[in-house]
Amino acid sequence: MLNSRSEENRIIKRDKNVGKIKNSSHYSFVYKNGKSLANRTLVMYILKNDTDINRIGISVSKKVGNSVVRHRLMRLIRESYRLNGNQLKTGYDIVVVARANAKGKDYSDISRDFLHLAGLHGIKLQNEEDSDVPDKDIS
Question: pTM for this one?
């Protein structure tokens, strides 16, 4: 039995296809055994986790900026995953590390770089919009 309406809303909004990487040993395991690729703003490590969900971890070093800057980047990366997670294959541990160059970037830049790395890793699902085959014009 739920105690309040806010608990009910939290349960409804929670995505069942995503988990969090919480402890440092799990991060270390993904760093050590996972595959990494990078672009100018982000580094992405992935490792198959033999489940049907993705687990995501986000790391932003103090080198990137002060607390406000670091938390803003964490929110942007988390939001990018939340809105684009349905375009990714499931069953992976994903660790995203923000580089110093990510400081000052807006959501569209972070999201584009996140999806770029997912595509390079081969975990991005193909959409009709993303395919190289042009649409047939039926007119």
Answer: 0.78
